[in-house]
Description:
alpha/beta; globular; homodimer
Amino acid sequence: MLSFAVTHTDGAARRGILTLPHGRVDTPQFMPVGTAGSVRAIAPDDLERVGAQMVLGNTYHLLLRPGPELVAEMGGLHRFMSWPRPILTDSGGFQVYSLAEQRKISEEGALFRSHLDGSQHLLTPERAVEVQQKLGPDILMCFDECPPANASRAEHEEAVARTTRWAMRCHAEWKKDPKGSLFGIVQGGLQRDLRERHAAEIAALEFEGNALGGFSVGEHPEQMWDGVAHAGPLLPRGKPRYLMGVGTPEDLLRCVLNGIDLFDCVLPTRVARNGLLFTRQGRLQIKAARYAKDQRPADAECRCYTCTTFTRAYLRHLFNAQELLAFRLNSLHNLAFYMDLMTGMRAAIETGTAQTYADAALEAFRRGPD
Amino acid sequence: MLSFAVTHTDGAARRGILTLPHGRVDTPQFMPVGTAGSVRAIAPDDLERVGAQMVLGNTYHLLLRPGPELVAEMGGLHRFMSWPRPILTDSGGFQVYSLAEQRKISEEGALFRSHLDGSQHLLTPERAVEVQQKLGPDILMCFDECPPANASRAEHEEAVARTTRWAMRCHAEWKKDPKGSLFGIVQGGLQRDLRERHAAEIAALEFEGNALGGFSVGEHPEQMWDGVAHAGPLLPRGKPRYLMGVGTPEDLLRCVLNGIDLFDCVLPTRVARNGLLFTRQGRLQIKAARYAKDQRPADAECRCYTCTTFTRAYLRHLFNAQELLAFRLNSLHNLAFYMDLMTGMRAAIETGTAQTYADAALEAFRRGPD
């Protein structure tokens, strides 16, 4: 279903081309998160503008509303949300752990109540694959168990073992009608031996791509970076490597250097709605009084609609007045920033300067916007 | 400051071209309302897309936040909100009556407290002109007194007399540094003799354009249409005629037929945020269960981004999930609908078919969307 070619390497970092049913994805790539069938405040026209190539859809949210059967009847998620390019859906597992109420996990799957209306749902490995196939993404994910960062060794061992068993059930279900490409997920927390064992187990199942789950779940950034530096290279070299739910610009730079090809995170759009703008000089809190009369764009080097059209003073006013337009303009910029960052990393890998590029970008971030 | 040419008439209806410092406005024209320096949920790119030629800025809102001095320092409202085309500002009077707290009206002006932070402000005719000139619109409005529909005859007489005295003070203040074009406002409620007397008084002051205030303040639509049918033609023929704060699609069609050139109203964007979409077949409540699997656009004849890209099923999902994107897409469509309606009326006036066009549109609205 997919083809993946690594065209350049630079240390552990890889530049690749991922070809999917709905188009080409240049890796490393960041996927904006379209939680409930839309990237919050951002329509497909803005996604095109910022150069997004692939978005993520949340199975948990779409399962609860409007429901996978409706999306399927409407021609699948691409048609439903009018996004013609590639889509990856997660399995819903992470949101069951973080959002759902009264959840009970058993070998069969996860029984939980909707955070929206209290309705009861059972998500099993088989149902997670079935739901995703109704959504019709280019890539779907195995249903996994994702313990928090402070889970015990025993809990991690149990999660790893169960995630493998569930991966086999997902694979068997997907095999019945293999639409889309199914990716496996490696758990194990910060336990290196568990990560190694689990990476080998998941690799043996020969998914078309592999992911690292269980990072950015409460551990310190340095711990996560170390964990990914160790676990990233454990994933099969010839297949896409996806780090789930990560992260900050710093996270992306560091993890690309450790061989990650795909990322997703709500961070750029979520913090945008709270008035935080990423710039090449670091984080800018647009509500700060110092920007009240600042005629400069949020980021002078950014070519996005927000930065080429509006001043910091205006963006500050919109945010302070809680104008709806603030959410769109801030989100648009932060996504453009992420896309530019990844474009920069891809170009740097091609020229063998990934470490230099990342070091310079990290140094500039630390400076802080003037 | 402005030039205005009526190029066609059709009964009382007029087709004209209004030329302002920031560009040309084809009349009859509808102005989207940019309350606090932005048309809610709509950026200038969307305004361009729907063909908006002129927007309204609310002096009351901008006075309170971010303040006229800041807007002036930022180069005026056009630059602040990145809208290069014409802007009209109201005087703030209407919001003082409808939004402000603890207001005291005297001959000097209106003393009130901000609905945002309780801060005290005095808006006099002179200050209203000063504030508007700091915002720097193409057209500014006199500070008037606008009684509610159920006001007594005596209250209307008092408001008319005071509005004339205040109009003279506005004019004197504006004359000191005549930037922008100052428009007079005719009050008088539904009292025909008061409207006639006041129209003559305001005409005598020779403003560059004239407005009808005090409509759509609680009276029945039929009363308003009758009132405008009477009062519209009282305004000087060679100057633009502006009906303030109106209205529904039905209002626009009927009032264009009675010689109105300019309209503004929050209605299309406000109801959009509540899930009401205007279509050529009438009002569509997007949350209705009957649209859950409706693959059609909101309005099959509409060429806006929303209608050419998304289905009713998707718009319903976005609205039910209260996704921020719903506010933009719905608002964009309703503004496009209003713009198309006015484009249709202008074309009809040119061919002497205004009444036929309006009758057909009104008949189609009554049908209701299928």
